[in-house]
Amino acid sequence: MHKQRENRIGAQLGRAARLESFGGPEKLKVWNVPAPQAGPGEIRIRVVAAGLNPMDWVMTSDAETAARFGLSLPCGYGTDYAGVVDQVGEGVAGYSVGDRVFGTALSRSLADYILMSADGDIASGVAHHTPEGVEDRTAATLAIAGSTAAAALAKLDLGPGDTVLIGGAGGGVGVFAVQLARLSGARVVGTGSAASAGYLSSLGATPVTYGDGLAERIRALDGALPTAALDLHGTDTVDVARELGVPNDRICTIAAAVPGVHAANGAEAGPEALQDIAHYVAEGELRVPIAKTFPLVQVRAAVELQAARHVRGKIVVDL
Ligand SMILES: NC(=O)c1ccc[n+]([C@@H]2O[C@H](COP(=O)([O-])OP(=O)(O)OC[C@H]3O[C@@H](n4cnc5c(N)ncnc54)[C@H](OP(=O)(O)O)[C@@H]3O)[C@@H](O)[C@H]2O)c1
């Protein structure tokens, strides 16, 4: 746990990862900033861990993209978090000091203290109660990737008769998508690099290597051809799914728009989808591989590793 800091006039300070100009991870610095105070209708959270997502570096990569997300300078960093409620503003119901929570805080979660409206949502910032049995590092990975996987799978309406092809199955969203698809009874064929095959099998997917010749490799597998597909990386999985006869209305993308197929966004998943995921984790039915953890002071290295796009599972920054 971090030590409480004070500035020269005695105001409480907290660390926060910030950018003073938009760009790559080299722009990220850790600052000591005044700790925000919870106003009416707000809660303050002492963040314990923050999971990284590609959206973090996409949103802050240049001024034009940042403006589309309503971000301005100096800009915070990171969206997923887990922590503990440490202030409760006037008029707030449903939260008490000491409650363990997890959720989203758009581009500001890598900070010792964050404020949240008590009735926010995944886009504005939200705090869900962390169930017993879910540790903070894991809770800090659930909101963006879990909601996105749930929203995408909802478009496909999988059942025990289905085989779903998941492209990019071992990444942050993939680990949730593979396991949620398996929980719905579907068989999963998941793409990854050759080196990720054993890891994909451990998640419950039949592994297949992405790249040229993917359709032939899938045809050569034992078992039925895919009846549905989810592309978590780009458009290659969509193309191969169509080639294998999967109808457009059973194909979904999250990383690129493809005319004629579904596109999913994490914001479409209701809060109950995320609570279900947290309970699956608590009950040991779903696990989140955490590839590596970093202290806040090493935030640049954490982001560089995440942005290389070959992480198996999630990267978490400890606060
Ligand atoms: N629409 C939304 O609401 C939403 C929400 C979250 C994420 N996204 C987007 O969805 C994408 C996935 O997010 P994520 O968090 O899962 O990313 P991620 O964790 O960075 O994904 C890494 C995974 O991608 C795999 N991969 C690398 N190259 C690949 C290729 N050519 N074909 C297939 N897979 C490949 C890697 O497998 P190997 O290590 O085996 O190479 C690794 O397992 C990102 O573009 C992100 O921006 C969208």
Summed up:
With 319 residues, this protein is α/β, with parallel strands linked by helices. The chain has 2 domains: 5-142 and 289-318, Medium-chain alcohol dehydrogenases, catalytic domain (Quinone Oxidoreductase, Chain A, domain 1, Alpha-Beta Complex), CATH 3.90.180; 145-267, Medium-chain alcohol dehydrogenases, catalytic domain (Quinone Oxidoreductase, Chain A, domain 1, Alpha-Beta Complex), CATH 3.90.180.
Describe the protein's architecture and organization.
With 319 residues, this protein is of the alpha/beta class. It folds into two domains: 5-142 and 289-318, Quinone Oxidoreductase, Chain A, domain 1 (Alpha-Beta Complex), CATH 3.90.180.10; 145-267, Quinone Oxidoreductase, Chain A, domain 1 (Alpha-Beta Complex). It has helices at 54-59, 63-68, 136-139, 143-156, 172-183, 197-203, 214-219, 236-243, 271-282, 299-307; strands at residues 5-6, 12-19, 28-34, 42-51, 75-76, 80-88, 100-104, 113-117, 126-129, 163-167, 187-192, 206-209, 228-231, 251-253, 262-263, 290-295, 314-318. Helix 5 links the parallel strand 10 (163-167) and strand 11. The chain is globular and about 70 Å long. NADP nicotinamide-adenine-dinucleotide phosphate binds at residues 53-55, 58, 144-145, 148, 167-168, 170-174, 191-193, 196, 210, 232-233, 236, 254-255, 265-266, 309-312. Residues 53-55, 58, 144-145, 148, 167-168, 170-174, 191-193, 196, 210, 232-233, 236, 254-255, 265-266, 309-312 line the site of NADP nicotinamide-adenine-dinucleotide phosphate.
